[in-house]
Amino acid sequence: MNFRTVLKKDKVREVISYQDKILCIGSCFAENIHHFLSHRKYKSFLNPCGITYNPISIANSIYYTIGMTDIKREDIQENNGIYFHFDFHSQFSGTSKDEVFEKITHHLEQARKFNDPDVLILSLGSAFTYFQSMTNEAVNNCHKIPQSSFEKVRLSISQISNMLNVAISEIRKAKPKMKVIVTVSPVRHLKDGMINNNLSKSSLLLSVPELEEATYFPSYELLLDDLRDYRFYDRDLVHPSSEAVDYILDFFEGQFFSGEKEIRDKVVKVQNDLKHRAFFPDSDQHQQFLKKVMINMQTLMEESNVDFLREIQATKEKLI
Q1: Which residues contact 59 (CB under 8 A, 6 or more apart)?
Q2: What would you report as the CA-atom Rg of the chain, rounded to the nearest whole angstrom?
Q3: What are the φ and ψ backbone dihedral angles of 299, each rounded to 5 degrees?
Q4: 311-315: long-range contacts, CB 8 A cutoff, minimum separation 24
Q5: HEC string for the chain
Q6: pTM for this predicted structure
Q7: 4-42 per-position pLDDT tens digit
Q8: Using CA atoms, how far apart are residues 16 and 26, in angstroms rounded to an integer?
Q9: Positive or negative CA dihedral for 308, 314, 319, 320?
């Protein structure tokens, strides 16, 4: 007897390879995908503007990445001694305008190395978007400004798809064969209320088929329809548990990676070895272990397109 409906994988496609540059933009589930990729040493960059939930800010993140939009000092604002930019997450906030400008500028310099990605991954979090009442401009983060300063709007299906299609077409100019993967984050936005959360997620889901040349990944359905149980949520009952994230990412791997499994497995083995903490780091046994890990990293770098330079240097410093 079956007690759950298991979502079946689509035909496996070689969408992502070690030769690709991958740009991940969107909600905190974009972080899960990015960490999955970077742990396996794929060339992945996460969120040029920090965590981003609404489609307009996701589109703006693309524009910042390709240099169509740039940061201006006069756009950095202050509230209660903290400086911030409405287009960027609070991770870039600081106690001076110069500090914020330098943080954002440095991050964008790194992001623009991925301005011609082979793969663009978008994780849509919420159709609800906050607009500044004074300027009618969408914000990525309200930065603890009173809600009375904003108008909260649920974007329509056409607004979402049109905004994202324009941004995708702009970043595609640098690489017309760029592949796009879109998912709707399974993280529930219950601060909007349960009904509004469902309306928001529905708007996002209905917008996806209107996106041009984009492949949908069903992270939302995997948690809500396949796993479908509160034991697969974290303690806040909003975010998926670590087991659920692993299940969804295993599905992701099965759908978008048809080759290079042997390399991925070897990389993960090395990453796990690097986490090992010895009780006696100067012992012959541990020193031999470190040398073996060094050889494995060097071999992987020679045989495949993975970068262990930083880890090799750190390991060398532990050798006696």
Answers
A1: 163, 164, 166, 167
A2: 21
A3: -65, -45
A4: 311/270, 311/274, 315/274, 315/290
A5: CCCCCCCCCCCCCCCCCCCCEEEEEECHHHHHHHHHHHHCCCEEEECCCCCCCCHHHHHHHHHHHHCCCCCCHHHCEEECCEEECCCCCHHHCECCHHHHHHHHHHHHHHHHHHCCCCEEEEEECCCEEEEECCCCCEECCCCCCCHHHEEEEECCHHHHHHHHHHHHHHHHCCCCCCEEEEEECCCCCHHHCHHHHHHHHHHHHHHHHHCCCEEEECHHHHHHHHHCCHHHECCCCCCECHHHHHHHHHHHHHHHCCCCHHHHHHHHHHHHHHCCCCCCCCCHHHHHHHHHHHHHHHHHHHHCCCCCHHHHHHHHCCCC
A6: 0.94
A7: 888 888 776 668 999 999 999 999 899 999 999 999 999
A8: 19
A9: positive
Of 262, 260, 247, 267, nearest to 307 (Cα)? 267
Cα separation, 58 vs 55, in Å, equals: 5
Residue 55 burial (C-beta neighbours within 10 Å; 0-12, 13-18, 19+):
buried
Cα–Cα distance measured from residue 255 to residue 118, given in angstroms and rounded to the nearest whole number: 17
pLDDT in tens, 193-221: 999 999 999 999 999 999 999 999 999 99
- Residue owning tokens 């048809």: 258
Mean predicted confidence (pLDDT) in 271-289: 92
Distance from C-alpha of 125 to C-alpha of 128, rounded to nearest angstrom: 9
Let me know if 80 is exposed, middle or buried by CB neighbors in 10 A (0-12, 13-18, 19+). Answer: exposed
Q: Is the C-alpha dihedral spanning 187, 193, 198, 202 positive or negative?
A: negative
Bridging pattern class, strands 138-139 and 128-132: antiparallel
Structure tokens at 84: 């911030």
